[in-house]
Amino acid sequence: MGFFTDLKDDLSQAVNELMPADGKAPDEPVKPENMNAQTGAENSKGQFGMTDLSESSDIQQKPDTVNYHTPEPDTTEKKVSDEVAVITAGMIVRGDVSSEGSMDLIGTVIGNIDVLGKLNVTGCIQGDSRASEVYAENAKVTGEINSQGSVKIGNSSVIIGNIFATSAVIAGAVKGDIDVQGPVLLDSSAIIMGNIRSKSVQINNGAVIEGMCSQCYSDINPANFFEEFNKGKK
């Protein structure tokens, strides 16, 4: 019996030495598969936990901002070509005509004309015309004439329509308003039936005008002149 009693005491002492001071059993070692499962659970909680879901919902509530690229307008000026288009006598063109050069119109165009260069008309136009300069000699035009430069209406030419230009020399007949930023010269054979708005007007003896003339583009304002004159008299 003494042998078994000593053996029991030795085993109890060995167990007590292995136990920690707080008397609790040591933690069970974590198996590799449990470690992977625990790590995955923590990662899942970090990605799909309540805090992360609230943050993701905030992101989804913000409207997506789409940046649209607005193309810049093409401000490059087109160069006038040296080529000259010719509409010969007896030729009739039905429809709009455009050219990057100049044009000599001897025939007839029933439509609008838009050229970057000069437009020389000795034929007929039934439509609006636009060019850098317009010269009409013995021409018949029914439509508006818009020139970025000068307009010259020669003798025996008849224009039924308004004229817009920076300067004008008229020796023919015009039925329409003339709006010119610069000077207007009316030759002795000119016949005007319409109003004239310009910077200055030179009327040669023999010209006939039925309408009003206004030098609204002049550097001197007559209204201001007389207002200052009346103030000086007081």
Automatic annotation (TrEMBL):
Taxonomic superkingdom: Bacteria
Organism: Kineothrix alysoides
Polar residues composition-biased segments: 35-46, 53-68
Record Pfam families: Bactofilin
Region ranges (Disordered): 14-79
Family: Belongs to the bactofilin family.
Name of the protein described by the UniProt record: Polymer-forming protein
